[in-house]
Amino acid sequence: MQHQVTIRYGILRNIENVYTPTPTLRKGDKVVIRSSRGVELGEVVSQPQEVDDKTVVQNMGEVLYKVTEEDKKKQKEIEEEKIPSEFSLCQKKIKEHNLPMKLASVEHLFGSKKIIFYFLAKGRVDFRELVKDLAKEYKSRIEMKQIGVRDEARLLAEYEHCGRELCCRTFLKDLEPVTMKMAKNQKATLDPSKISGRCGRLMCCLRYEDNAYEELKHYLPKKGTLIMTTKGVGEVVDYDILQQKVTMETKDKKLIVVLKDEILEKVNETRTNMGKECESNCEHRCE
Questions:
Q1: Which of 10, 53, 89, 188 is the most exposed place for a label (fewest CB within 10 A)?
Q2: What does pTM read for this prediction?
Q3: Domain ranges, residue 136
């Protein structure tokens, strides 16, 4: 029987399950792991769990050991001395080669001679000569990684409008797309400055409750539907998804708010994209 634990590691705060020979690890412990990138530092974010030998995953990372005082000194040296120097030199070389790219950050892996340079650019960049210069200078394996604005926020920003640390820096593993429809469903303001995150894109948290809003929305009649209620007959002009209420307009132009349970029946559904009535005598129903 083996054990696995969830680890957060790397400058992009990747989250990954890895095997551990130490089932006594606790959340918050600093460890040295072997990931797909090499040997690096990580932080335990879950309790170890037993894994059946039949469910063993090939090429999964592993915890090597808990961080020692010597490891902490080495990491401090990397962060305070090596990384600033590598960042400055790379910026200088970018200017020398006149490359259309913006350097965002540098990551120097703890236990291997590998340096990752994160940059932003509008299109593809031919950085082969830049890589040659950096490899010659540092005698290390150089990786240039192009990122987008969401990853830039994950690298450089810390707190969101709500006062909490960015979701992408704490627990989000994958940055899934967020749409304006999600904001509209939740009746959120459409002011870009209020629904955009530090990256300038729609906030990831708009996605969290979207499934619940979509499910509740199906219980309410669509706008334009003629409904019969305990308060009369009217056409739906608006609805409140969370409170399960609809606003209907009666024939005398009055607006009445009714609960979902007060709707007796839908007199007719709203119809969109309807073409002319079919004049064919066929027995098939026209769509």
A1: 53
A2: 0.67
A3: 72-147
